[in-house]
Structure formats: C-alpha cells, structure tokens
Amino acid sequence: MQRLLLVLIAIGLSTVDHLPMQPTMAYSITEVASIYSASGSDDRIKESTKDGTMYGDVYNWADMIQNYIQQVAADGIQRDQTQMLFDQAEYLYEKKNGTNVTMQVKQELSAYFRKKKATAHRIAEAAAEAYNRHYRQVRSGQRKIAASLSDLSVDIYRDSDIPHRLANSGMTLVPFFRQHITYNFSTIKIPDDVPRDLNETIFTVEWTYELERIFNETYQNDSSIRWLYFGSSTGVTRLYPGREWSSNFVGFYTDYDPRIRPWYIAATSGPKDVVIIIDCSASMEGEKFGIARSVAKAVIRTLTKQDYMNVVCARASHWDEVGKWHYFKSEVLSCQETKMVPATIEFRKDLMEKIDGLKPGGTSELEHGFQMGFELLNSQPRTGCLSILVFITDGKDTDGETVRCGPGYYTRSGYVPGPVCKYNWTKVWSVVNATNADSKPPARIFSYLIKDDGQMFPGALACNHSGSLRKLEDGENLISRMDNYFDFLARVAQNSKGLWTSPYIDAFGLGTMVTHAVPVISTIDTGKPRTIGVVGVDATLEEIETYVTRRQWGSVTSFLIDKEGQTIYHPLLKGSASLKDDPIFIHIQRMEQNKKSIPKEFNKVTQKMINGETGMIAIENGRRGISKGDYRAGVKYETMPLEYYFTNIEDSEYSVAFVLSKTDKVYRKLIEPKIEFEELVPRNRSYFNLLIEYNSSTVLKHYPDVFKYLNVKYNMSKKFQKLRITELHSSIFFAPKCYCEPLRYLFDDDLARKTLDAHEYMNTGKPDTGCHSPDSKATDQAIFEAGSRAYVLVTQPIEERWRERKFSWIDEVIWTYVGMRSGVFRTYPGHRSVRPYDPTKRPWYSRTKSSPTKTSISTPYYDSAGSGKIITISQAVFEGMDNKTDGCNVTGKTKKPGGCPCEEGDECTSGYCYISAAKATTKEIQQGKRCATERIEAITSLDLGYNNFHRKVYNLMQASDGVKSCNAEYKCPDGSPNCKTVCYVFDNRANVIMAADFIEATDLDEGRYKGVTLGQKEGEVMMNLVFRQKLFQRDESVDFQGTCSFTAGAPRVTMNGIPTTPEESDNLYKTRGPIPGFSNSYGCIQDVISFEVNETALGRSRMLVGNVSGPCMQGFYYVTSLKDTNLFLLVIENWRDRSKTPFNFNCLLTRKLVASGASRIINGTCAHDQSGEVSDTGGASGGSGGASSSSDNGQDADRNCPALNNVTIPCDFNRANVLQMEQVIKLLLGWIILVTVHLTL
C-alpha cells in the first residue's frame, strides 16, 4: 500500500470533490454551483468548475441510458409477467429435517465407497493368487516364460501402444467413458523405458492375464464401474476396460509408468518424511543445476498427502577474485522454514515453483545444510514412520577460481586475491553421523551425483546411512535411473491395507477422481512380504458430488471434506469437470470463515468432522456466501443464523455437511397448477430442447405431427448460424440435477428416447412421483426429480408474451430465457442446449442472484452459439409471495419479511417492494405494494447483439452545447488541439461494459472487449476512485485452482474446428481425432485482484468528480450510477492522451496497479499455510486457520505407521572407495587431534 501511495504522489493526482445532492432533472453549471453554495461548499465548487462544464449532461446521459436499459428489460424480458405467474402459483409447505437428509447421504455414499473398496480388495486377492501360482509353475518347470512378447497370443497380450494388437477388438465409443473402449478384455501398457523383452516384463504380462476373469465379473455385477487396473512393480499396467492409449498433440503415444503415480506410491511406501538437500553452489551452474531441479521435482511429484517434506538449498557467501563480497546463505524453500509441511498438492506446487526459481551461486556449505535438514526431519509435525534424505550434488570440493574464501590483500606488487575455497568434507561427515545416530527413526540417505566424478563423499555418505548413490549424466528417464529410491519405497512397507488417494486428474481421460489403491503382497519368491504391484479402482469426483448435491433444496448448501479438513466439494469452488490440473483443495475454514477466523464456532464443526463424528452445531453469526458471477467475480457473504448437520462417510476418509438457515427448515415447494392434460392444444404444450429428435422414428411413432407443427428451421439467419430453432415455441431443458440419475443422463446418447420421455413427462398427466418416493415401482422408475414439471407448467404462459412482443429493437434480441432454481430452463426461440448446462451455475444467474433488486448487465462476450458479440440483461424473479398475516409490525431497524405491506424496498428484508398478483387478506393489501420474499425463484434474461446496443447508447450521449458529445474532439482549455470527451459504462466490479473501441474489435478478438477492466483503460481515474474517493474496495485473494496460459492470448482468425453450437459441443468426444489439439492453458496458483463498488461513496448527489493528470492521460472526470442497475457511467471531459509518449513505463505501471484480474504467482505463495491448530474453544492460531492434527510428542496422532521391512540396498558406490574414504577421514581426524594437542602444549 505504501508503494501505491508513493506512485499516487508521483503522478500528482489532484483532489476530488463530491456533489452533495441528487438532481432530478438536467442542471446547468450555474445551477450545480448553487447546489454547492447552499451546502456551504462555495470554495470547492469554484475550484472544480474551472475544469468541469458537463454536470448536467452527465446526469441526463445517465438517466437516458438507464431508462433505455430498463425499457429493453421491461419490453424484452417481461419479468413482471413471469413474477406474476409465480405469485399466482400455489406452494406446498414441507418440513425439512437436516439430520435425516444428512443420514440419507451418508447411507448412499457409504454404500458407493464400500462397493469400490470391496472390488479393489477382491482384485488384489486374485492378483496375489495368480502371481503365486504362475511363479510356482515357472519354478517347477510346469510353465515356460515366452521368449518375447510377440510370442504371446493376442488374448494375453493386447498392447495399448500397438494398433495391430488391438485390431478387430470390437472397441466402440462408450459415452460413459467418452472414448472408444471395450468391456470384452483388458489392455497392457508398458512404459517407454522398460525393456519389453525382459523376463520380468513378459512374466508380468502372462500372469496378469488371469485378472481378466475378475474384471469381467465386476462389470457384470456393476455396469457403472470406471477404470480397474493393476500396476506392477515391473512398470507394466493392465487396464480394464481395454483402450488404445492416448496420443500427445504431435501424435505419439503418451508415456505412463504406474510406479510414479500417486495411487501407487501412497499404497506401497506408507507415510514418510522426506527432506531434499540441493547443493546450490557455483560449481553446479549450467546443465548440472537443471538436472538437480529435475531430480528434486521428480521426488516431490511422487509424494502424497500422507507424507511430509521440505527442501534445503545449501550454500554460503564468498569473495571473488577481485575482493568483492557475494552474499548467499543456506535456506529452507517452504513457507514453513522451521518444520516439515504436508505433501498436499498446494505445498508440492509451491516447492516446485521455488525450485524452478533457484539459481546456483555461492560456495559449497553442506555442513549447515545437513544440520537444517536433520532439524526439519526431527521437527513437528511429521509422520515419524520413515525418514529419507535426498542429497543432490556434483561432489566437487571447489567452485572455481572466482569463488574465494578470503577478502584478499594488497602488496607492493598489486592485489593478491584470497584463497580458492576448498571444502572440508570431514566436517559434514561428522555432523551427519552424529546427528543421524540420534534421530528417531534414522534417515536413509540417497545421493544423486550430477555429471561430475566427485563420487567419493556423496557415495560414502549414502552407503554409510543405508542408502545408495546414482550418477546422472542428464535428466532423461529419471524415474528409471532413480530406481534405487523408487524400488526402495516399493519394498520397504509391509502394508496390505488399501487407502483412498487425494483427488487427481485421471491420466486415462475421465477428469478428476479418487482411487482406492490396495498393494498386492507376495512372499513366495523371497520368503518375506514383497509388494509386487498395486490394484486401483477409480471413483470420479463428478459421481461423488452428485450424491451430495442432489439432496439440496432451496438455499441449502453442502460441502464434503477429507480427514485433513481439505474441501473436496463446495458450491463456491470450481466443479471437478473444469479443473486443468490436479486440484489444490482449500481448507474448509477458508471457505466458511473470514480472515479473522470468524465465526469461531465453526472450528468445532471442523474438528468434529475431521474426527469422523456425527452431529449438529448451530452458529448464530454464520457466514453464507453467494457467488457474484464467475470464479473471479468474488463472493457476497451474508451473516445469519446457520445450522451445520454433519456426518462421516463410512469406508472412505470423507465427511459431509449440510448447512441450513432457519427458513430452510420449512421449504415452500412449487406445486403444479391444475391442468387437464388431455385438453392441452399444441400451442399450450411445452417442447423439449432436442428439436430434431421429434423427427426421429422413436418419437414419430407416438407423436407423428409434432415436428411438422414446430416448423423447425436450420441456419435461418446470421443470428442462428448452424442452429435448429423454432419461432413458434420456447424449448425446455432439464439440467442434470433435474434427473434421478444425473450421470446416466449425461452419458446416455439415446437422444430420441430422452426426448420422448421428457415430452411425455411435461405434457401428460402421469403422476410426478419423483426419485425417492415409495410410490415409484421398480418396473416404472421415475426419471425426473419430483416438482420439475411444476416449473414447466407455471412458466408456460410466458412463452406467448415472448412470442408476441412488439417493440422497435426486437430484431436486436437473440435469446430470451428464464433459468429456475430447480434447474429447469426455458428459452425462446426454442433451440438445443449443451448437455451439462445448468442455468443456476452460469455467471448471469449468480451475478443477478447476488444483487436481486437490480437489473444486471454482463460484460460483452462471444456467443457460444455463434451469434457474435452479445451482452446479457438479467432480472431476478422472487419466490411466489406468501399471504402474510403476521410479523409485519416491526420496529427500529428490523426489516419486514416477504408479503408485508411496504412503500420502499429499504423496508423489506429482500430489499424489493412491488405490487404483487398474489392473494392477500384484504383488498387494500392486494392493491398496494408488498415486500418480495427473501428467496430467488428464477433469473430471467435476454441476450442482445452488442454492436447495436453500443450504437444506441452512444447516440444518447449528445452534449447540450453540441460540442462535447461522447467521442467528439475539440480544442483544449489552453487552446491546444486534440482534447475529446471519452465515455465508459462499467459495472460494480470495475469491468468495462462499453468503450468506444469495443465496437471496432472483431467478434473473434475477445481479448479487446471481454473482461476489460477500468484500470486497464483509465489507470489514473481508477486509482483516484480506489484510493482517494473510496468508490471501490480492493480485495486480494489466492486462487489455488487457477488457469494460466503458456503464451499471451491472440485473436482467433476463424472458428473452424472449434465447437460453436450445442450439438457440436455435445458430439465433440465422437468427432475429435485421436490426436488432441495443443492446449495453451494449464493449472496454476494465481493472485486474484478484484474490486467492489461502495455506492455510499457517491453521496446524495449520486456523482463523483475529479481532475486527474498522469502519465497516461489528463482530464476532468464524472462518475455517476445508473440507478436500479449494476452499472455506472464515467465521462472524462478534456481528455488528452499521453500514453503514446516513447518509453512511457509509468503509464503501464499505473494501469497495472489498479487492474483487476488474476496473475500467476511466480515464486510460490504462503497463502496455503496450514500451520494453525484448531481448538474446541477458539480460533485457529497462525497461518490461515487450517487444522493441524499433529501431536506435540512424536508422530502425527492420526497416522498409523505400517510395519517396515529391513530392506538392504546394494551399495552401488564402489565399496573400496568407501573404505578408503573412511580411512582418510580417520587419518584427518587423528591429525586434527594431534595438532590441537601440540598447540595446547
């Protein structure tokens, strides 16, 4: 903040004044001055009026733009008519019990996880039996291992990388997997660096073929299975259902080694503590340090959340050959410098970011580096199960002629540099031996020598501490070349128990998932337990989320966490399907508490859920968040009494909670209007969005005339390119959550059957029993959630109002629609929607729901249906009004509930007061205004072509003097040319809705008009509004699920090859080729800056003015609100451009300082710090309030260490050298003792 203020001072921003009252008509400059005079502001107005002459014009323009928008909304959206339909509808009161709902979800999810877990253990038992049987047969001579893989039959060896091995395999496109697979057999995947003709490889392929039978049996018993697989310790994977392997964007099959996948490592090694010590001295410069980075990251990538880790960069300061001092120090890279951190995804990404940022330099100083490493290994928290120290160095004891260990001195002959640094390995040897002897458990040391031949010290050190050395000449195939480390992990733990992994992105293409991984143990070859591989059974997060969300109602929210308190699902986080990388899950306290850990009572909820308890905790000052739009728009939080109902999910490591407000306990459920379905004429029926399917044989058989009646047209105009539409009717789309089995709907490609089912559900009188009703018989299972049809029938009449609209700008309207909280979506003209579409999760829905009393306008964007640049105007529809008879006589600041008589919205809890068509107890109340209910029933919107909307608005902004209209150029006050009036319309988050150059941008050049912020356009004005006027409040947060790009965005030249219609998007998985396109985006951690308007800063005048002069521009600005919308008008008079001045870096800086948006965090972040400890009585101490389950006296209290095998690692370092090293060290120690004694005497 201090730096920002210095910049403000540097660019000389002037003072700014407030206008004291709001005019109701146009005012001249003299009249505005008299307003100031009346309020005692003579001096201030005299100063500001020297530069400002457009007060009256700006007020007029704001009123005209506002009136235009409201007129478009009234004529186009017809919100009042939709509100009337819900007010006249009938509602049924249902009492809801949070405990019952929570226990229902527990029962369903527990059964789901139990089935997956049982399957994994069953396959693991079969794998152990098959291995033992084949091993005995080979050893006894009953069976011979084939000479090569090509000698094996196709049934045994179907290679995912060899097409002819998959020929005639009967693979078909299965929607449930979104790719070509076969349930008939499994396929084999062998890593690129595993020799295919090794006996171990061939033997693994042979014996794992016996798993085919149990794979098929599993599918027969559960057709909804996802991937089943066995990953062998040899690197071979057998996968079911069978598939051809994926290709990268250049056409090569991608590599895959199960031994480095999180599910394999977690299941085989058990919990461990790992410290990596990197020699960062100057001798490591160049390729060597790149290899060192790769080794460190390879180790980190294979750690899991059950492990603890940290990284030390070891080096020290030195002089150079001319006597200059260079400062370096050994440092711990994590945010936690004195202790280990859990190897969760966020900490792993943070450490890898910091490793990438390291640069070699300094002199070797490993003594202190190892001291730091052992201090970390013995700190708390840790697992205390297995300690590993990974040491990466070139083994050199000097760092070159430029690295000196003394300042040097001058003689008569000139300067004499200090001595070249030569490192004393003896000290390190002594420190490591002494410290590790006292460590519990002692650490095993794995050394990696990078390129050079200095193997004596790192090799001897590793071999002396039960580890080994590997020399690496380059960074290729590191996993195979680091086999000493990974093979040890696979053999050390005697662990036969399975576990659930952290969620990760599936390498086989099914999105985010968790795996139940079970190690397969055999004793037959060594007599001791040995892990021969791991069985994995997958469960997608999409399925798990569905179980949680399908039980929600009204404004109820729910969330799912793991045993560490990490949030697996939360309505304010991105859905699992939209993640670009292995997800970073935020601690639940960051979601439910503010930065001060309020409400503190939520700590009890967290602790009980982590402990796996069941119960309910009421919090008086609970905190409920509502998204304001997309994930970068921020969240609106409301404080209210909340009740948290929670329970654990058996056979998993998760707990679920449902969050209810007091009003959620009694749910007003919309019920169907009384309709004689048999008497419905075609004009009064509703039609499903898959219009073309009405022409399918399945539907024609039952409804032969519907398709012809709908008069479906294709590609009828530029607005509807490549779309099938009907102008006779709107269409109905049911979001996945409207279906009893959302995933079956998503992956079912029988579109004709879907259309028939939906049409009959909407237009016939079959009982709407719903999914969980006891009336639903097994032979007649319901398809839709109960109550979905009510929304269809209640909104059907609005279709006629949309169809019969007559106003001058009707041709500018593209789509008109209403999205209801149930997930039902009605849109006109009727057309298809994409299959996973959910209106309640769209930015226009969230944005309007967060400010329901205002008309909400979106930023311009490119229409996904191909209609070019558009904007969306949205309004909220409140739940049908209740016939209120009590609770209306309130006093003080108490607000009136919905249904009570009112005069202004400020009197109401909902903030909205209107004349309702709902029933009332008296005629007087019926005819007067009443408060809207607190709950939102729907959001109704229309999409307009941007360019015409832009022209209309700018045409309204004509100056009264005929000179200073928007975009007009004129002489500046000092007589110089090139001044102009610049105008912007922006929203309450400082996003520019309208700018002069937006209309010049081509539709495909979204970067020039979508998501452009006011700070990017007018940095000086934005800085003034933020720091001086306080119109905007700045908020900074960290997005652990961000998306970054490798290169800067560029405008599209064409949309060819990119899905532009719902049909193309739904069919993409069918039509895409085997080679994926190059993706420019990847998952990253981002710093997110956002701004939120503080409307009280406008004062009674509803306007702010100011004179600014900076490196980008100068001018006099006016800001006023467009009342009853989310928009504001900025007009800059006498605007003069300075941005094109050569080398104007200050302009760029000014705009950057106040630009909202997200940027990648380059050097890691401490925002994911989880060091806080939760107590039952208070908040979290330290960090960001994350829960820590570590104890103070030993290993983590929640971790059970598996029994460890006493694995003897062959010391690959030459043993003679080890003995030589030990002898040298003993001689050196003896010499030091003798010298010390001599000096003492």
From TrEMBL:
Q: Which residues form the signal peptide?
A: 1-18
Q: Name one Pfam family in it.
A: VWA_N
Q: How does it sit in the membrane?
A: Single-pass type I membrane protein
Question: Which GO cellular component term is one of those annotated?
Answer: voltage-gated calcium channel complex
Region of interest (Disordered), ranges: 1173-1196
Looking up PANTHER family in the UniProt record yields: VOLTAGE-DEPENDENT CALCIUM CHANNEL SUBUNIT ALPHA-2/DELTA-RELATED (PTHR10166), VWA N-TERMINAL DOMAIN-CONTAINING PROTEIN (PTHR10166:SF43)
Residue ranges of domain VWFA in the record:
273-404
What GO MF terms are annotated?
Answer: voltage-gated calcium channel activity
For this protein, the record's SUPFAM superfamilies field holds: Sensory domain-like, vWA-like
- Record's keyword terms, sorted: Calcium, Calcium channel, Calcium transport, Glycoprotein, Ion channel, Ion transport, Membrane, Signal, Transmembrane, Transmembrane helix, Transport, Voltage-gated channel
Q: Where in the cell is it found?
A: Membrane
What is the designated name of this protein?
Answer: VWFA domain-containing protein
